[in-house]
Design brief:
Number of strands: 4
Order of helices and strands: HHHHHHHHHHEEEHEHHH
Largest sheet: 4 strands, mixed
Strand content: 5-15%
Shape: rod-shaped
Helix content: 55-70%
Number of domains: 2
Length: 366
Amino acid sequence: MAENENGQEKTEQPSAKRREEAEEKGQVAKSQELNSVAVIAAMLIVFKFMSDSFGASIKGYMGYMYSESGIYDLNLNSFVDIMAHTMMTTVKVLGPILLTVLLFGIMSNVGQVGLVFADKAMKPDFSKVNPMKGLKRMFSTRSLVELLKGVIKIAIIAYIGYSVLEGFYGSYLIMPSRSVAEIAAFLADSIYEITFKILLALLLMAIADFAYQRYEHEKGLKMTKDEVKDETKQSEGDPKVKSRIKSIMRQRSMDRMMSKVPDATVVVTNPTHFAVALLYDPASKSDAPKVVAKGKNLIALRIKEIAAENNIPVIENKPLARSLYAMVEVDQEIPELLYQAVAEVLSQVFQGNRSRYNQIQGALNG
């Protein structure tokens, strides 16, 4: 189990923020073995398909130098001419090799980690030159794994080289009787076969190394429970503070709602579980009553208490109270579906006021 510097176990999966920070520092799951395989493959491909072209360029250059060596006087102009031919031949031979190696190297890195621009990785980190940390890294599990990989690579190269050369042993015995061109072709084939077999072996090793690097990277990114809590506090705020703020906001909202109860026209109750305060003002632009407060249980009890303190009529109507509570939010007008039921309640309130009673009946039933 991975641990941090304080000895705490890293049991939690890394967050997106943790991964982003690691990428900014250049800490990604990448296998150098795959990069090495890509470079070897690039060189092998170039030599396989362009060896004749390289041979022709080198042969032409050597012929030029040999044929012209007795003609040139050693002066500035001849020196410039020789250097121009030398540079041209060098570019023809090394140019394709370097470009192919560069292309394969980029493809290998992008294939492993994508396009990552790690600015922080370019900044100097003096902790890397700390002798104590250096000794710790030297004897770490990662260092031992790297040492083991090096030993395995040397063993693979030695074994493949020996087995291929042993297979060509009979051919070596007759080399003295061959021409220079035949010897060169034979050596080229031998080198190509050795390199190709080494490449295949290293590719298998690189795939295994990439899987190991991903495993180590994920293990290193894991977080302790305290780190998860700290990150949550930084990104979302302290849960206790947020809870306190929400509590204050709920209380303020409740206070605003309760402050409207004294202005209500009537309170419709369940009678104990629900209470809804309605405001109806026929003189307003809207003819529909509006819910100014609602609640259940303790809040319903408080609404009824405020209504009693302010002489607001409280009428029991279980179906209507439940419907209003479920269908209408605070400060919203009642839907047409409830007009008739609300009209009957308001009619009870204004029975003593004949003109208001008729006005309600006309507004809500008409």
